[in-house]
Amino acid sequence: MPKAKGKTRRQKFGYSVNRKRLNRNARRKAAPRIECSHIRHAWDHAKSVRQNLAEMGLAVDPNRAVPLRKRKAMARDEKNYYQDTPKQIRSKINVYKRFYPAEWQDFLDSLQKRKMEVE
After folding, report:
1. pLDDT tens digits, one per residue of 67-96
2. CA distance 111 to 116
3. Quick one: pLDDT at residue 24?
4. CB-based contact 35:29 (threshold 8 Å)
5. How much is the CA Rg of the chain, to the nearest whole Å?
6. CA-closest candidate to residue 42, choices 58, 61, 56
7. In this predicted model, what pLDDT tens digit does every residue of 17-47 receive, in sequence order?
8. CA angle 47, 51, 54 (to 5 degrees)
9. Neighbouring residues of 97: CB distance < 8 A, sequence distance ≥ 6
10. Domain boundaries, the chain
11. What angle do CA 81, 73, 71 make, to 5 degrees?
12. 71-88 b/e with 16+ CB inside 10 Å = b?
């Protein structure tokens, strides 16, 4: 279809454009060079990133590829009836040491004897 007469303008050089920044931005937006030759040759530009990586046996999102089981923090130890945190257990031990030093020493001695029997 022919153009309307008198609607074409000649191109003028843009003196106000920063050429250095223009080239730098063009380089940043350009597709990067893939170093791995296997991935570079297997890449199909007609497909999406997810499809390309799936064909190669790779995952886009590792969190979805390997689902983690959800578990409660203090529910791991079955002896921890009251669901105490490690810091709470540590403070209870320190209180016991302070109020019952003789019993604490007996407990440590029994642990040493048990350790000697194992070795």
Report:
1. 777 666 555 778 888 888 889 999 999 999
2. 9
3. 94
4. no
5. 35
6. 56
7. 999 999 999 998 888 888 989 989 999 989 9
8. 150
9. 104
10. 19-65, 74-118
11. 110
12. eeeeeeeeeeeeeeeeee
